[in-house]
Amino acid sequence: ITNSGDPQHWAWKRRETARTSKHWRFCTVPGPLPWLTTTDLEILKENAEVASEFTRLHLNRWVTSEDRLASAEDLAACTVLPGPVPPQPGVQYVISADLGLINDRSVTAVMHGEDAPGGRKSVLDYIIRWQGSRADPVPLGEVRDTIAALSEQYSRAPVVIDPHQGALLAQELRSAGVEVSEFVFSAVSVGRLALSLHQAIRQRRIELFPDEDLAEELGSVRLRKNTLGVYRLDHD
Q: pTM of whole model > 0.70?
């Protein structure tokens, strides 16, 4: 039993299960509450921190929060590719690598840029993940070999890597003839990344293929602004 919330919240999936299942009795009451006057609603709307708060709490509608990196609708609109894109001649690719060993996953993505009527757009060509655990950490040798193979496959694409945990991997890739540059995740650089990705998704300037893990990951990220006015990425 709850008022409406954010469609990216886990409660939405439970709600939809109940709504569509023959084993549940589902009931929803539209807002606003019948005893609230027009003046009451105006006051509540004025005092809501954001518009979505009023819409959820008092109109009982499921709406995406303003601080979401991407709404479900935006992600669906960006998912226009049928699947991973094989390498094409004459295209300049870039590979990004973010390493995790136990709790965080290691992720490698291949992307390229294209000119489009609305401006430059980014295309996700391929993505691969490794999930480790304390008993079985991510096999970094396998990650290294996969990145090297992808670089060779995608026109000797350069690799961008987070040096925090990737210094040794970067050295080994360079020894294998792969061009590697480092991207340092600082408060300022992460803020720039957050806003750029947010705008690319909202403006449909990024093309994705169906990937449930990626959609769930992007849909559960929030943009937060700190006291210095710098944005950061928070995860649900």
A: yes
Name the maximum alpha-carbon separation found in the chain.
Answer: 72
Classify each residue of 122-133 as buried b or exposed e, where b means 16 or more C-beta atoms within 10 Å of its C-beta: bbbbbbebbebe
Omega prior to 32 cis, within 30 of 0: yes
Residue 40 makes CB contacts below 8 A (sequence gap 6+) with none
Tokens at 233, concatenated: 């990425």
If you average pLDDT over every residue of the chain, what do you get? 90
How many residues make up the chain in this entry?
236
**Cα 110 vs. chain centroid, distance in angstroms?**
15
Cβ contacts of 209-212, under 8 Å, gap ≥ 24: 209/79, 209/81, 209/82, 209/83, 209/84, 209/85, 209/124, 210/79, 210/82, 210/83, 211/127
Note whether 198 and 68 are within 8 A (CB).
no
Q: How far apart are the C-alpha atoms of 182 and 122, rounded to whole Å?
A: 20
Instruction: Show the tokens assigned to 110.
Output: 């291949």
Q: What are phi and psi of 98, to 5 degrees?
A: -125, 125
What span, in angstroms and rounded, lies between the C-alpha atoms of 105 and 99? 7
CB burial of residue 153 (10 Å; 0-12, 13-18, 19+): middle
DSSP string, 172-203: HHHHTT--EEE----HHHHHHHHHHHHHHHHT
Structure tokens at 206: 């990024």
Predicted pLDDT at 121: 95
